[in-house]
Amino acid sequence: MREAYICDFTRSPIGRYAGALSHVRADDLAAHPIRALRERHPNIDWAALDDCFMGCANQAGEDNRNVARMAVLLAGLPVSAPGTTINRLCGSGLDAVGQAARAIKAGEADLVLAGGVESMSRAPFVMPKATNAFSRDNTVYDTTIGWRFVNPALKELWGCASMPETGENVAAQFGISRADQDAFALRSQQNAEKARLAGYFAREITPIKVTVGRIESLVETDEHPRPETTSESLARLKAPFRKEGGTVTAGNASGVNDGAACLILASEEGIRRFDLTPRARVVAMATAGLEPISWGMALLPPRSVFSPEQVGLCPMSILWS
Q1: Residues 269-289, buried b or exposed e (16+ Cβ, 10 A)?
Q2: Residues ≥6 apart with Cβ < 8 Å to 259
Q3: How confident is the model at residue 100 (pLDDT cuts 50, 70, 90)?
Q4: Maximum C-alpha span of the chain
Q5: What crossing angle do the helices spanning 67-74 and 26-40 adopt, rounded to 10°?
Q6: 177 Cα distance to chain centroid
Q7: What is the rounded distance in angstroms from the CA atom of residue 260 to the CA atom of residue 237?
Q8: Which candidate, 126, 2, 152, places its Cα nearest to that of 59?
Q9: Is it the case that residue 303 has pLDDT exceeding 50?
Q10: In this model, does residue 318 exceed pLDDT 50?
């Protein structure tokens, strides 16, 4: 079997909800890193691109109708450049890389783009069609996060827990305390600030111009990190997702963000043909299903916080060499 290599990558800054990138359409946001890679690699014949895999969990607004294909066209790639959008919810971008690597390993591709995009700020409200004539009411769903158009049969089988609710379930199941979660969150904020100051993120970010009316600004850094975070400020936050004994807060949970990223993957033949430099080899990727009420088991942090037995339960991994 052939090998699949990651040869280059870039991303937009990550914007806060309703922040600096909230004025950028999701399809334009997806096109941004693709355009940057196209400009960075003039030796690539982009008409030879075998596919573009883009992960996108929402797909309810401007990211609908195959945002991957829209992105490659908006980025100026030839009309022959294909694209397909993948939805594995939180694992969508990672799955895009996995599928790109598999296509290369199988001998079906030599040059592939893979990445993901999400604009949670611009996620629309949606409503179902009326179920009977002259209906006088309807339901409106906010597609920013969570389930909409719930199937009653599936809800009966597995419930309809939100992401933070499943986080509470996992914390209870494995005895992960509020203090441990806050400590991990604080260390993450501190490490993010150290990396920013060292210029680590600047090497992977392609700044993006944002125009609002007549005002144009350049967004160059991630908005979501909060370096001013302290253990005291984290401890003051409420845990609104469980009436008693809750542990998940706005300070130790995932953020709601906007952003996009893209990687170039290639076979050895593609590397030679387009004068690329391999950075990493994709060795393997696997997935597994979990009970929906505790799917957060797939996202347990590293061994430095939790025991090997706890971390070993993680069903999704990607190995590099």
Answers
A1: ebbebbebebeeebeebeeee
A2: 11, 12, 13, 14, 15, 21, 29, 117, 118
A3: very high
A4: 64
A5: 50
A6: 26
A7: 29
A8: 126
A9: no
A10: no
Nearest CA among 83, 163, 73 for reference residue 115: 83
Amino acid identity for residue 301 in this structure:
P
Q: Quote the DSSP letter at residue 126.
A: E
What pLDDT is stored for residue 299 in this prediction? 55
- Closest CA relative to residue 7, chosen from 117, 116, 100: 100
Type and span of the H or E element at 194: helix 178-197
pTM: 0.90
Alpha-carbon Rg for the chain in angstroms: 21
Amino acid identity, position 1: M
Which phi and psi (to 5°) does residue 254 adopt? -65, 150
3-state secondary structure of 117: strand
Count of H-run helices and E-run strands, the chain: 9, 12
Alpha-carbon span 160 to 171, nearest angstrom: 18
- State yes or no: pLDDT of 295 exceeds 80: no
Q: What is the DSSP letter of 5?
A: E
Structure confidence by residue, pLDDT tens digits, 195-248: 999 999 999 999 999 999 999 999 999 998 999 999 999 999 999 999 899 999
